[in-house]
Amino acid sequence: MLSRLTRPQALAVCALPVAALLATAAFAPLPFSVAQPGMTANVLGENKGSQVITISGAPTRRTSGQLRMTTIEATNPDTDVRLSDVIDGWFRTDQAIMPRDSVYPSGQSTKEIEQHNTEQMRQSQDAATEAALKYLDLGRDGVKVTLKLSDVGGPSAGLLFSLGIVDKLDGDGSGGDLTGGRTIAGTGTIDADGKVGAVGGVALKTQAARRDGATVFLVPKDECADAKSELPAGLRLVPVTTLQGAVKALVALEHGKGSVPGC
């Protein structure tokens, strides 16, 4: 013999599996990483006791100001991110919830990811050196550049490495500093021909830059919208697409002449 459930009883029965799913989701690890503003480093100076840029085979100049590369810090690939972490990060401006696969290559161990990031950094340093020397019409056979930055992986410091090399060798091209004595920060990959590429996480990187004293931030042009989304007060965005364009913008900013692009 069958009996019919009342509406409240039916709702209660239906709510049970929903509640069970929500409870499972609350405690189950999710495929996300929590990111926040990371460290910055002045590529014209030292990092952990060692010069970031060392050049031999050509005369270098004493620089003033800073060129700060920027990073984000993300939860380790083997760290469990829960629903509560996602909800908390969603409402904070100093954190971002990112798909884990957009931060770390999927299907790789922590050791493999570290090796991958180290290799990307090495390739980025080679490309940054080649781009800078090509811009200055100098040959790599006569000029040796060593780049050293501890505990940082990936390709996103490429643009700042290139600018640092240019500043140490040539400055603004007329005896002044490329920075104009300012603290300039930025991000962006670079290839051997000097083309600047997008990197991700720029909204968090602008916060790291302003925290560490930067007043100007060089951003890949395609990421202007992201950079503006949480832009700290007192930080000016300068979009770039090439090394040549970045140098030109900084020289115009230093001398107050010419057009300085904006987002």
From TrEMBL:
GO MF, one example: serine-type endopeptidase activity
One Pfam entry name:
Lon_C
In the UniProt record, the signal sequence range is 1-28
Matching entries from SUPFAM superfamilies are given as:
Ribosomal protein S5 domain 2-like (SSF54211)
Write the record's keywords in alphabetical order, separated by commas: Signal
Q: Name one GO biological process term.
A: proteolysis
In this protein, which residues make up the domain named Lon proteolytic?
A: 154-243
The protein's name in its UniProt record: Lon proteolytic domain-containing protein
Report the source organism: Streptomyces humidus
